[in-house]
Design a protein that fits this description.
The structure is a single chain. This protein is of the alpha+beta class. It has one domain. A three-stranded antiparallel beta sheet has the order 3-4-5, with no helix packed on it. The chain has a two-stranded antiparallel ribbon with strand order 1-2. It has a two-stranded antiparallel sheet with strand order 6-7. Strand 6 and strand 7 form a beta hairpin. The longest helix has 9 residues. It is elongated, with a radius of gyration of 15 Å. The termini are far apart.
């Protein structure tokens, strides 16, 4: 059986990165981007985590993010709901 290709590239050859929030591996490179880099935080998040947190990230659900932000001197800004907005 032939290997599935995306844009002429075998899926197995597409680089992956870890989503910082859910820690799953996501395809990220060579024209396939299943997430995005949040430059202000220095992390990559997957599309699933971004869409699931479209109104903000519940801090207690992601203590690793809070630790990362604190240790890197990143200001933790909460919205009116008390959630952390994901910067564009």
């Amino acid at each position: 059986m032939a290997e599935h290709k995306t844009g002429g590239i075998p899926v197995s050859e597409i680089p992956t990165v870890e989503c910082f929030l859910c820690q799953r591996q996501i395809k990220f490179g060579r024209g396939v981007y299943k997430g995005r880099i949040v430059q202000a935080w220095g992390i990559t998040i997957c599309q699933t985590c971004e869409s699931g947190n479209h109104d903000g990230i519940f801090p207690r659900s992601h203590p690793r993010l809070l630790d990362h932000m604190k240790s890197n001197g990143i200001e933790i800004r909460r919205n009116k709901k008390g959630l952390i907005d994901i910067p564009q």
